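Below sits my pick:
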Amino acid sequence: MELLLNAIAAVESRHDSGAVGDNGRAVGIYQIHRSYWADGTRILGVTWDYRDARDPQKARQVVRAYLSHYGKGKTLLEMARIHNGGPAGHKKEATVTYARRIEQVLDSAA
């Protein structure tokens, strides 16, 4: 899981905690949207404000909780697709290219 989280941060923002993307709708190293943050903090059992999505440590905890919850029993690449496309992201054709980018980062880290 830790290698996956590192790969997601690399692909999403090059580990830039100040990154803003998707026309201002995604923030932080994991490029988290507000709805993802709300769901992830609920799963984690915390009440952190969306501004905290810019905090790399808090964001990592939220992404880990989100992927552990929705990615239970899934491969790392399926979990990456869930991060990119939501709870059913592993089934969406639109997330395949994203998974390939994650796979390249994982392969280069091995």
About this structure: The radius of gyration is 13 Å. The longest helix spans residues 56-70. DSSP finds five helices and three strands in the chain.
